[in-house]
Write a structure and sequence with these properties.
The complex is a heterotrimer of chains A (232), B (395) and C (130).
Chain A: E1 2-13, E2 21-33, E3 36-42, H1 48-55, E4 63-68, E5 71-72, H2 78-88, E6 89-92, H3 104-115, H4 121-130, H5 146-159, E7 164-168, H6 176-192, E8 196-200, E9 212-217, E10 220-226
Helix pairs in contact in A: 3-5, 4-5
Chain B: H1 2-8, H2 10-47, E1 52-56, H3 57-62, H4 65-71, E2 79-80, H5 82-89, E3 93-103, E4 115-119, H6 128-134, E5 143-146, E6 157-160, E7 163-170, E8 181-185, H7 186-198, E9 212-213, E10 215-220, H8 226-236, E11 240-244, H9 245-298, H10 303-335, H11 337-344, H12 353-383, H13 387-393
Parallel strand pairs in B: 4-8, 5-7
Antiparallel strand pairs in B: 1-10, 1-11, 2-9, 3-4, 3-10, 5-8, 6-7
Chain C: H1 6-23, H2 38-62, H3 67-83, H4 98-127
Helix pairs in contact in C: 1-2, 1-4, 2-3, 3-4
Amino acid sequence: MILKADNISKTFFRNTGSANYFYAVSSMSLEVPSGSVTVLTGRSGSGKTTLLNMLAGILEPTKGKVLLDDTDLYSLKDDELSRFRNKRIGVVPQGRSAVDTLTVMENILLPAKLYEKTAPAEEARQRMDDFEIDHLADAMPRELSGGELRRMAIIRALVQNPDVLFADEPTGDLDDENTEKVLSALSSFAHDQKKAVFIVTHENDALKYADRIFRMEKGQIDLQENQSGESV
Amino acid sequence: MSVKNLKRKPGRTIALVLLTAFLALAVFGGSVVVLSLRNGLQSLEARLGADIILVPSEAQSKVSFQNMFLQGTTGAFYMDASVTEKALEVPGVEKAAPQVFLASLKADCCSIKIQVIGIDPEKDFTVQPWIARSLTGELGDLEVAVGCKVEADIGEIIRIYEQRCKVIARLEPTGTGLDTAVYCNMDTMNKLLAAAEAKGISHKITSDDDSVVSAVYIKVKDGYDIDTVNTALTGKLRKVTAVRTRSMITGVSDSLAGVSRTVTTMIVVIWVLAFIILLLSYVMIIRERSREFAVLRVLGASRKMLGRMALLESAACGLMGGILGVIVAAVGVFAFASLIESSLGLPYLMPVFSTVLLLAIGTILLSIAVSAAASALSAWRLSRVNPGTALREGN
Amino acid sequence: MKKQMIPGCVMLVLALVISIGSLTFLSPCIHEDGSVGACWWAGRALLGLGCLLGVLALLTLVSGRARFGTYLSSIAVCILGILTPGTLISMCRMSSMHCRAVMQPAMIILFSVSALAAVIGVLLSGKGKA
């Protein structure tokens, strides 16, 4: 299983400035293979999130294709793509991503419930226990701290059990101990279950778990680092 | 999911429900009133089955004859009983039915005056068919039939001028002044008149003649022009005014048209205003909810699912609002029917239950439709929300 | 303000409307000559019941301990209020009279809504104890 980006670029329109549009991501290709953790770093505004959204099938690129195995994501109809993403692509979005009207448990089981009647409640409990938010299962999101919400979003993506998991600043609101826990959980998800994990971050904590590191600047992938001793 | 959304945002839900309830209330209440007025007019037409009514000239000014019919005010006026026979001699007159009116003293049976109407079952063709629907057989001596607004049970004895009259029938509502009257035959009426005389309430026109009538209902033969007959009657009979029932009905239907125009205008204004408010609230909700919908998109919900969810929620609000509005309006309109009737001063007859039920269902469906329509734009916008950008804006 | 006190507030407002209404816009019939019928006594009874309901409503607001029982007895008062005009004390003979057209339906509605508030009050204040 491999996710490939083929020459994708994204331009946004702007009302100010001399040029009326700019490249958030200029033409680039990359691959995200299963069984590995890929980390994308870079300063804010460098286009990291835009790239992640395009890879995750949420944001259609201006040019280029995104392929998961043989499926061209953006050639699918909305219904098909939505279902496809629900089954195979997990996303931990940046910032607060809880649905306010659902409890923490309902939020975590939401991806499963969108298309099916049954939901992996047992696994969800286990994960919540691991991340120490098991006592919050019936709480409403507004009662949770930023760090607890972050962990909830990560559990939601893990329980969804996708082939590719995207995480946008997964350790943003977390203390050191929880940062370690989350990153090692993502790492074991990639290595033990042979899934692809793609992390976007501007912090350095994630780097030591990375099999491959991309650095992004001004819409370009600037540098590629391979961690020694790990196969790509 | 939709249910949870509604339940866990009670403020938003209640506001939307109340808004639609207000719409439903206006529509349901307004239409029941208008329908009741129409019914009342039809019923009035049916009960005024005569073409011409002869009343003493003094009745036109003294106690407005029309008010008796429309609002049930009491009145008594008399003319010589021979008017009936004389009227039948006029060419073109097919039937002539006399009636005698008497206003009870309020101290007698009730806390207010009641209009007593004596009819001649042999000749009567206007009130008799209506009475026949509630009474098999005939009104006997000292037996009365009461209009639906007179609180008296069948078998009960009511006292009119010290005469004990037995209630043997309660009549169907007509929405007109006829509902507040008590009906008896001519023999009973003559006894009552005599009893009234004893109490010092005189009905006599001349000191020696006992036989009087208050109004004579005329049916004109087919083929004769009503106006011509009318003129002939006025010419022949002295001190008698011939009233064309058409003119009474036209008067009523004119005021009815006025009232229903006002009600309709009010309903339309309320709807336009409330629809705009609903539309604005849903548009405002777009901002509030775009993040929520973006998250759902990210988790793999399709546009169709989101659109359906947004529409379902607003339809549910419409349903609840519609039901609430109909209930409140029904309580108001039915509990205060007599108040509405007396303040309008027009014949007012509630539609039958099935019509009301149909109206209620229609109103609720309409509320759902309007609620869904008002949210359609916002549902569309929300389902197209761009998850990438929407999630960023929230940070 | 506690949740259990909201029905009490509603009841208090309704009791005021009932009491003041029975003397003014929801009054029974008074005839031109000043005489009165049965409905007038119904109006008196309703005034008394309205005041009683008001006192009970105040009690639910003041005393937390007695709240459950007070709501419970308010229901009984409201039922009496619903039955008073027409059922227990007769109204005028003619349904177009003020007592039948206005006082009776309005009082029945007001007492019914109060009864509903009292039932909600019972449910809310009973929950805490169970």
